[in-house]
Design brief:
binds pyridoxal-5'-phosphate, about 190 residues, 3-stranded parallel beta sheet, alpha/beta, globular, about 20% strand
């Protein structure tokens, strides 16, 4: 039996499936890589930059230029043959990663961005003249309420999204996944 954690579910929401690749930084808590492996997908590390210790936009851009090819509107790693299914920057120790640049690169390549804001509840990033919270940039983002985090509920966490379809999918998965039916209980 598999236990689903909030981080797995954010990857499920953006449709990561087994044996696909997910780009993550090596400088993070192990849960970032675990969420990928737990789905049967493969973590692919993109180096960090030294100012904020988040995923380096430069390293991401270079790696994608080196390995990524587009086939039928999807992006594949031409060395491994796997689809590159998501990019997951991490705001480590509550310090915002260069998320605006990272998001722009993800957008250019049409790869879903999932933001790991587990450690960054309450952190802000300047976006033009606006301040925006970490966790508001990803197609789906996560915050952790584990015992060592900014706010704790003992365990668990939260998925953030502005996408109505993803939000209702998230609600479905996180609340016993019952399929609507007048009398049958099918989950
Ligand atoms: C704590 C943490 C997680 C894990 O959160 P859980 O709620 O335990 O799933 C993921 N990523 C980072 C960067 C963390 O610090």
């Amino acid at each position: 039996q598999r236990q689903m954690c909030i981080r797995d579910s954010a990857l499920i929401l953006v449709a990561v499936i087994p044996s696909e690749e997910v780009l993550i930084p090596p400088m993070t808590f192990v849960a970032t890589a675990n969420a990928v492996s737990h789905l049967g997908a493969v973590p692919h590390f993109i180096d960090i930059e030294k100012d904020f210790l988040g995923m380096s936009p430069h390293a991401l851009e270079e790696r994608l230029e080196e390995i990524a090819i587009k086939k039928n509107g999807r992006i594949y790693n031409k060395i491994s043959g796997r689809r590159i299914a998501a990019i997951v920057p991490v705001h480590i120790f509550g310090t915002p990663a260069r998320i605006i640049e990272l998001k722009e690169i993800a957008y250019q390549w049409n790869i879903p961005l999932v933001e790991d804001a587990a450690e960054a509840l309450g952190s802000w990033i300047k976006d033009g003249n606006h301040l925006r919270h970490c966790g508001s940039f990803g197609m789906a983002s996560i915050i952790s309420f584990n015992g060592n985090k900014i706010i704790s509920t003992g365990g668990g966490g939260m998925i953030l999204t502005n996408d109505k379809i993803l939000a209702s999918k998230a609600k479905h998965y996180s609340s016993t996944a019952k399929i609507k039916h007048p009398w049958a209980f099918i989950h």
